[in-house]
Design goal:
The protein is of the alpha/beta class. It is built from nine helices and eleven strands. The longest helix is centred in the N-terminal third of the chain and has 14 residues. The radius of gyration is 18 Å and the shape is globular.
Length: 271
Amino acid sequence: MKELQNLHTHSSYCDGANTPEEIILTAIDKGFTSIGFSGHTYMSCSPFFQKKGDHTEAYKKNISELKIKYKDLIRVYLGLEVDMYAGCDMTGYDYLIGSVHYLKIGDEYLNLVKPCDVVEKIINEHFGGDGIKYMKAYYSSMTKLPEYGNFDIIGHFDLVSMHSEKRNFFDIESKEYLNAAIEAAEALKGKIPFFEVNTGAMARGQKSIPYPSLAIVKELKRLGFGAVIASDCHNMVNLDYGFDIAEEVLKAGGFKEKYILTDNGFTAVSI
């Protein structure tokens, strides 16, 4: 039987549209064998959390209860997507995704996951209008992820390319871009074992391909990283969005297997 799993799932406890139970029921209907929740870490600088508050403890309690309630139908895992600047308690989780959503410039946190015009303003105001400098600052920040936690998975490796198909802030086909990504991957080698092929930007209409690009996938394979497939789901209808495309990217990158989380840790399964 094909193993369907998504470990990058956001619920109504952060910026997702659905409750964890609604997502679990959707996963069961879609034939998932397991589902992992990856709530965002509380960030005091985030407008979302400033309005909604910190629901970490309620989130942990609810997922733990749902694990038991649905144990005969699906395996449920409690995870966390950790922004490197969150400074949060990372104990009590089944797995951790390490992600860079912000660039820290002085005392200011610049949110990368913003519309094109906002990103352009960030580049103009903080990088002298130079998109290459902005891109390199992202990958430089990523190299520091292991300093902030013992992460299992690198989240959306080339997030900085989010607007590349709509706005030419920098050339993602250039040697300079690929070299910056490779340097980050080399710095993370042996420190974070897995990366995700993330279809979230595809589901939201921002990109036509997953994170990371095929060129980067090939380099991650060369460096010995394992791969998981994830949809970065914020709406349960997209729980398995683009998984077939993600598998094809992995195969084209030289992978013959993906990893899934089990009760005994991460296990390789053929694709």
